[in-house]
Amino acid sequence: MAKAAITIVTWNSMKHLPETLASVFAQTHEDRTVLIVDNASSDGTIGFVRERYPQAVILRNSKNLGFARAHNQGITYARTHLAVPGEELYVMVTNPDLILDPGYLETLIRALESRLDAGSAGGKLLRAFIKGEGELREPVLSGTFDSTGMRLARSRRTVERGAGEHDDGSVFGRTEEVFGVTGAAALYRLRALQDVAYRDEYFDEDFFAYKEDVDLAWRLRLRGWEALYVPAARAYHYRTAYGADRSSFRETVRNRRHRSGLVRRLSYRNHLLMLLKNEHLINLLLHLPLILWYELRKLVYLAVFEPRTLVAWGELFRLLPRMIAKRRLAMARAEVDARSIRRWFG
Length: 346
Prior knowledge:
Layout: E1 3-10, H1 17-24, E2 32-39, H2 45-52, E3 57-61, H3 67-81, E4 89-94, E5 98-100, H4 104-113, E6 118-131, E7 138-147, E8 150-152, E9 158-160, E10 176-178, E11 185-189, H5 190-196, H6 212-222, E12 226-237, H7 249-256, H8 261-278, H9 281-286, H10 288-305, H11 312-333, H12 338-342
Parallel strand pairs: 1-2, 1-4, 2-3, 6-12
Antiparallel strand pairs: 4-11, 5-12, 6-7, 6-11, 8-9, 10-12
Helix pairs in contact: 6-8, 8-11
């Protein structure tokens, strides 16, 4: 039986963590190790895990190191403590606000075992909501898509495929290749992660949080690793800010208002860092009018309504030397050409 590690990064995550862990420990795939990487929670997360799930491995940080670095700690632990030479090890990156169907992990492992060219796989994520409060609080598992994999427009706007649409069984019903899978509930082949790592970074730690999964998906693509959407694996995701796959620019702006200033800044900055690191020059030139139009509208909006978000440009220039070094490595390792990447922009 294939060995798997499930890494969950927590930061004051008790709102949904009990449901998440209950579904994680109910997985039908038995050869698994659950790793909790805690970013200095103060809401009783560690005490809850130790009491209810003593079999879980806990890595505790003294401060919030961010989503990317914390997951890297979990992946490194899995590589050094769980990997067996000559045997495949799978790592599932999981948010602490998910409810997984019991067969989620097993189904994704079977998909990757049947496709040795695939480095990652993700299932059908549907949206979950909370109804009521206190003793009347109960989860609502909806039939609305949260993600069926990543989609990149020619403007380089990144969205979750199908987000906001109703799952009536007529779409997204078959296993297929996608640009990448969302980091909320993604299964990675450890060999693929090691293949695209920058030193000991799998997720880019300079991103801290947000868009780090898109960046990783792009780097895996550059190395020739495929990504699979597997609808037979199903999970439900509580998400604080919802957006639709085919939303207009105005709707996108409206959704930003539900996010904190930190989230807006990191999302904006990391989108630019991702392009800097991974974009082929020829693809940039071919789609430049669409990219410039999209970025110009964002810039004007930010200048008028979110001027504080523009401090992201100072952070971008500070990180520029590191991003250039990471870009050089990614492009030197690239196994696919610009045309092969370009077919995913549409």
